[in-house]
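[step 3/7] fold_predict: job queued, chain A
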Amino acid sequence: MDLGIKGKRALVCAGSKGLGRGVAEKLAEAGVILTLNAREPKQLRETARAISKDYGVEVEIVAADVTTEEGRNALLRAEPQPDILVTNAGGPPPGDWSSVTEDNWLEAIRANMLAPILLMKAVIPGMIERKWGRIVNITSASVKSPIPELCLSNGARTGLTGFVAGTARQVARHGVVINNLLPGSHQTERLEKLLEKSAKARGVSLEEARAEEYAQNPTGRVGTPDEFGAAAAFLCSQYAGYIVGQNLLLDGGALNSTL
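[step 4/7] structure written:
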């Protein structure tokens, strides 16, 4: 399927590995010109080289922390007029309601709520002027099904979801489409760290913890960055113009719900 976005320009945050890289690769496969962001320069350079070689597209990089104003400004200087924005940031550390501090909350809100909101605010005017834009925010399945030990993520990402719900409907008439992707368990470094912590706390091996995680899902496995990236690329495509303000859950059916 031709997604109709060849030659479009995209900013992809946290695009050097994991789900962000999965999205970047699928956009590159569709012919999109990329500006990739991540904090770690070495991994970012390696990813950019690999994507450019594999898909023959132009890939620029910006090593910066987009949770800071300085980092966001650096990203927007590199690509001031993106047609596509993919926001993404690593989740805050685990912790339940009794253990997290005010500083923990402020950091989580800054990374997982304010940073994507401020990036959207910066790029939406240009998209409106050009009468075309796609924004995909990578959030979490915890928005629909809260995870007790991830209260920081539950709260901060839900705030972002509320902002998108209103904003998406205000800008859709201008051809600017905003949606959220809610990943469940996927083969990422973050999942491995959570499994390691769980295994240690319960006194089981990492292999046992991983097998239990897989068994809990209706598919008998976890998701892959490749299939996640494909879903994101579709939401960035010419065919997504009537999909507005939605929260697409990619969790293999883990959330047991009729609607």
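[step 5/7] annotate
The chain has two domains: 9-186+225-250, 188-222.
The chain has a mean pLDDT of 95.
exit 0
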